[in-house]
Design brief:
seven-stranded mixed beta sheet, alpha/beta, 18 strands, 484 residues
Amino acid sequence: MDWIAMQLSHESVKLWLSVGWSLYVVVVGIWILLQRSQPIATLSWLLSMAALPVVGLLVYYYFGPQRMKRQRIKRLRSRKRSRVRNSMQKLRERIPAQQERLRQVARLVGMTSDFPVSTATSMQLLVGGAATFDAIADAVSAARHHVHLEYYIYEPDQTGTALRDLLIEKARAGVQVRLLVDALGSKKLGRKFLEPLQQAGAEVLRFHDAKIGRRLRPVVNFRTHRKILVCDGKVGFTGGVNVTDEENERICDDAYHDVHIRVEGSVVNWLQTVFLEDWAYTRSDDPHRLPNDLDDLLPDCEDGPIPMQVVTSGPDDQLDAIYRSYLAAINAAQQRILLTTPYFVPTEGALTALTNAALRGVEVRILVPKKSDSLLVTAAARSYFDELIRCGVHIYEYAASMLHSKTLVVDDNMAMIGTANFDYRSFFLNYEVCVIGYGPELNQAIAAQFEADLGQARMVQYRSEKGLRRRLVGSVARLTSPLL
């Protein structure tokens, strides 16, 4: 009898566990479905939650996808609208009528990201961290009114210390210095390191501070991956280079290989707008979160010959502007597509756009690192190679060091550079910024650098997937790619 009672007790426990697990799956499933994320991401999270009860729920609660609400500061964006017509005329002059598809890309960017076409009086592609930091130091040294910086990674190392000391010097001279860093990406940036800068009069904020508290869940997985520097509202920088020795080849022999861009002209107003909106959002509890001297921060800049356009996206962007911009540019291509990215984990839509381009006769070349700083991302990227190669896409693996550049070249009159990787996180989770150049200037510069980088890369050959281990690792990495 005791044995029978024990068996019944065990069966009862199993029954209640089954019922509890089923209810858990239903409730969590409804919660995830209501987020209306990409189907593959939704499926990945559903499988993870079902396989890891309780633990999976906690992971999703803190790191799962969701949409955030942020108000754009309309008065910032409206201040420079009077320049739009002149800039659009420059675009019409530079892009021939037969290339109407590129003007349609510009319209799409403007409609989704709410940044119009503007212009640059000068543009310089900076190759490598050393060249980038030299150009930044020159611009900061020449600043007379303000220096604004926003970085995902700012390390308190030799490179970071040199820039900090320069900022201290400028702040003591009366220049307004505002530094916005991502709380997670720049987690090593401690009070002791920042104190001399703040004592000199600079302001420092942390974007989405990840401290335990009531705001942890809504913000911990949404980082500012942007790299922006603006001096006096007239000189602007953006691209892939963070402030760290890891990207400074003068200090680190195997430094990341990266590119950045320096621009002057009215396009800087829009980089400044991105910074100011992020700054105001980060100090949203302060009624005076926006500086009072907006006329000095957004000065009238001379129109230049180079049409350019800023595009941003983030979890507060319902239209996923950078993702749409990539797809629109790829779909508009007629001769060539040159894509460089450190993390290649395409969505189904992006994969289809690339393979369609190759199948219709466009030269499609993709440059990725031979080995990224994430083994899972490397495995996920390689799981797409055979399909791409079968369709005529040429893939190259850069072997000299960790490739960190994020660029796109389309035909001869369009190019993009910025902070966004070609992956799910950059397209839908991180706050990102890119600059698009219309015309030959940026296009030729990035295309030339692409060709130079191929000298240290190996073309990937087609190979059907063989071996259970390779196939299994690639499949698992690909399935979990929306969670990376």
